[in-house]
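User: Can you predict the 3D structure of T-complex protein 1 subunit alpha? Sequence below.
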Amino acid sequence: MSISAQNPDISGDRQSGQDVRTQNVVACQAISNIVKTSLGPVGLDKMLVDDIGDVTITNDGATILRMLEVEHPAAKVLVELAELQDREVGDGTTSVVIVAAELLKRANDLVRNKIHPTSIISGYRLAMREACKYIDEKLVTKVEKLGRVPLINCAKTSMSSKLISGDSDFFANLVVDAVLSVKMTNQRGEIKYPIKGINILKAHGQSARDSYLLKGYALNTGRAAQGMPLRVSPAKIACLDFNLQKTKMQLGVQVVVNDPRELEKIRQRQEADMTKERIEKLLKAGANVILTTKGIDDMALKYFVEAGAIAVRRVRKDDMRHVAKATGATLVTTFADMEGEETFDPAHLGSADEVVEERIADDDVVLIKGTKTSSAVSLILRGANDYMLDEMERALHDSLCIVKRTLESNAVVAGGGAVESALSVYLEHLATTLGSREQLAIAEFAEALLVIPKVLAVNAAKDATELVAKLRAYHHTAQTKADKKHYSSMGLDLVNGIVRNNLEAGVIEPAMSKVKIIQFATEAAITILRIDDMIKLVKEDGQGDE
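Assistant: Sure. Here are the predicted structure tokens for T-complex protein 1 subunit alpha:
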């Protein structure tokens, strides 16, 4: 029997068993170590310089990992994990990566001690379910009819680790106002807060505290011509997605002319009149604000100026969609109708109370105020330089998402490592009651969750071992003694390096954020843990030498 049958000829490297696992775990640890120091209210920022020399200074886990361009396949899973958390919840991207990497590391130790990965996976799954159940039943504080205070506290907690933590009172109020002003009820009667309707504009100059909230959707472009009025009220808005320029003949269109004198007429009709007729149709339908994603040339602008309408060209597609949604307009891509004629239906127009052009910093901005269907607001951020503005935008995005989640789920938990410590104590106790193989995996899961309070304490230059021990003692008391239930919201105060009741101190997060962190981190760890064989194919040379 030949040996070659055992090892088929693969044009690539094959690694299997423990090697692959160790390699994957090391890669994930490396990723987690990068973002580890940016966790928490005293976390530090990262400076990333890309290949063309653009600098990004950020504290946001998802942004850091997105900029890293990770090669390793297992580490890519963690990067995608952070992006998923960013999409689903908006905040907690750093924690989710750290927890996942820690779970992996501990699982790898178990596998080395001759415990089969399948048992570990089922143990982790069980622990995840129990943890989520425990959060929902024991740790959640329902915030019925949310007042402003819990919302502001959630926003402040989310901002605490970011650049703007010094002005968190000011920004938290901005964020809460912004989210509350886009409240809407959809067809099914659910109350939603579409934070896409909040437009964030960045303008240089002044200080961060001079940022403010504008009622109305701001477009970061000025009017197309100076002769246009500065304000139009009430506004009828047409959203177009084509050029209002001299129409060129399509390629391959041939015109056979018998009389050379007709040529000039054809050109006249072709270039000037068609655009003029289109504009007349628009104005006749009652439009007095025209937004287009493409260009408008000078000849066409003349007609708008005469009609006293505002025209804005080169509007971003995203902005256009939001304006169309907010004003009830329809994006029109062509005037052609079924009969081959060109018509414009007045029903496509959106309406708003007024459209004005204002100067913000050094830019002209067109504001659409009092929109018909949903209210749109814009946050105008002021700051010293680009890096600061970008980082402020990321921080505000996280806070907006968190406030939205809190409003939609109505449940909050204490922050500052409180939930993780409580779960750790609970799961450890749970593990000792199980007589099956999963016991060890669940115990390790419990240990892994403690990584969050540990990292928080280390980043704050405090004694992690002592603080985490105190924290666990409190949570153990809370879970064993009936009269000490309120200890379950004990968390870390990282400024003073003590343990305190974070629910009373106002350090709170939406429960959904915590549940998702645990679910996503476990799923990612399981995905990577299942891998026991990695085959990397060699790139074939294009020439083919043989």
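Residues 12-142+413-537 form a domain with the GROEL; domain 1 fold (CATH 1.10.560.10). The radius of gyration is 30 Å.
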